[in-house]
Amino acid sequence: MSIKLSLLLVFQTLLCHGLTVGNQQVEETDYSWEEAEGYKECEDFLIDMEVQHFNEDNGEFDESGFFREKPKPKALQKICSERECASALNRSMNSPGCGYSERILYSGNWTTTRIDLTNPNGYREAYFRLGGYRSGKTNDKNQPVGMAVPVIKKWYLDENNDVISATMSFYVPSPYQKDPPASLDEEVTVEQWDDLIIYSRTYGGNREDPEHMEQFHYLREALSMENIKTYPHMIMTAGYTSPRSGQQRREVMLIDDDSMTVKTETEDTMDLLSNIWPALIDI
After folding, report:
1. What does the pLDDT read at residue 52?
2. Whole-angstrom distance, CA of residue 243 vs CA of residue 239
3. For residue 169, which of 91, 110, 125, 159 is within the disulfide window of CB 3.0 to 4.6 Å?
4. What's the pTM?
5. From CA 10, how far away is CA 148, in angstroms rounded?
């Protein structure tokens, strides 16, 4: 057995027993990969490695196996039992496909702000603008509204699939969904999203990991096997857990093309801005 593979097996053992890896405490996971990810993984996406497995039937070692290198994500069911999640219906278990989750993200109110892609602190500033509304400092009721998950970023693409603009959004918690406070910050808007059919893949590591955004490749490949067409000018990322706070859950998302029939006010604005904003970053 190779040194690399031995280290991989040790790391997976640590994940299963909730031990500390580096400076990050990893929670114990007593659920399967399918429960954690929310879908059945495509066998072609797993890493084929020469691993010795003891076969009790013949008393010999087999020489093949499939492994995931990425950390196991925190299960959505566990997250939503601990804090409020945006209203959605998971239809993945009824899907004949593999490698993706299919959900209906129900209509609801979200607070949204633009991410300044020219500013290295653009993401941080966007988060704190939304945080000002959430804390009550910049809403007209001067009242904290709480926090729900996920935090969603939308990335708007041009005809060459280059990023031209981006937004960050917080879901308005249920006590304020029907009548959300108005924003006093002109850079933060309260907008109602229509029902969306979304397809996603889950990643259990940190958002800056290259493997995080690589999940878009696998998502598109999984959807192409089912001849599912997605909206070509937007991609989304969703964060359900605080960075480096333990076990993570991040998702990459594509939107079903047929569900993108009505644009939000923000999307219309992004269309106008796309004519003057260059593609300044790689997602």
Report:
1. 53
2. 9
3. 110
4. 0.79
5. 35
